[in-house]
Design goal:
Layout lengths: L13 E3 H9 L13 E2 L5 E2 L1 E10 L6 E9 L11
Parallel strand pairs: 1-5
Antiparallel strand pairs: 2-3, 4-5
């Protein structure tokens, strides 16, 4: 099991390619499909999207599991959330 925090108010989910590589090193198989979306970063810069993957995530409070879609991006991409 790998622990990460999720932004539950985000319009979309992104995960760094480095995190996926780490999961695969720990024998967690992740299937990568072609990208579904173009990701735009800070200053409207284009962000490299390596593809789409689905991961099972568990809410630590309720223990409910969810199949969540992520776009896989470069760790150094300038992506940020929108103002609340």
């Amino acid at each position: 099991m790998v622990q990460y925090k999720l932004d539950t108010g985000a319009e979309g989910n992104v995960i760094h390619k480095e995190a996926l590589d780490t999961m695969q090193q720990h024998s967690i198989h992740v299937q990568l499909s072609p990208p579904k979306y173009a990701i735009v970063g800070v200053g409207n810069g284009k962000v490299k999207n390596y593809g789409t993957c689905n991961l099972m995530v568990t809410n630590p409070l309720t223990k409910k599991r969810h199949n969540v879609e992520f776009q896989v991006i470069d760790r150094h991409a300038g992506v940020r959330g929108r103002a609340s």
